[in-house]
Here is the input.
Amino acid sequence: LCMSILSLLNQTVSIEPKSTPNGYGEASYGAAATHRCRLQRVYRVVRTDQGETKVSQTVLYLPPTSTVSVDDRATIESETFHVTEVARHVDGNGTLHHFRALLGRDA
Here is the structure.
């Protein structure tokens, strides 16, 4: 991983992977993992793969060693979000360089 991107990942995020629903049909989550990150605040409407409309509030950049998926729960700066989209970014050699995750709350 390029040192220049590592120097930008000067914040931390706690990511909890979405698990199977609990006995009441509510979302449940696995154990949290902490990752280095960088966030940018933005506001735009996005449509999920399931056709739901979400308001994206934060773009989160993560190193390639991170584990993050759509519908995971992310907590950063005492705010909790849901991951609405994950994109893999590769370098010129085709090697995974970083992840970009859109975080939001239900619209």
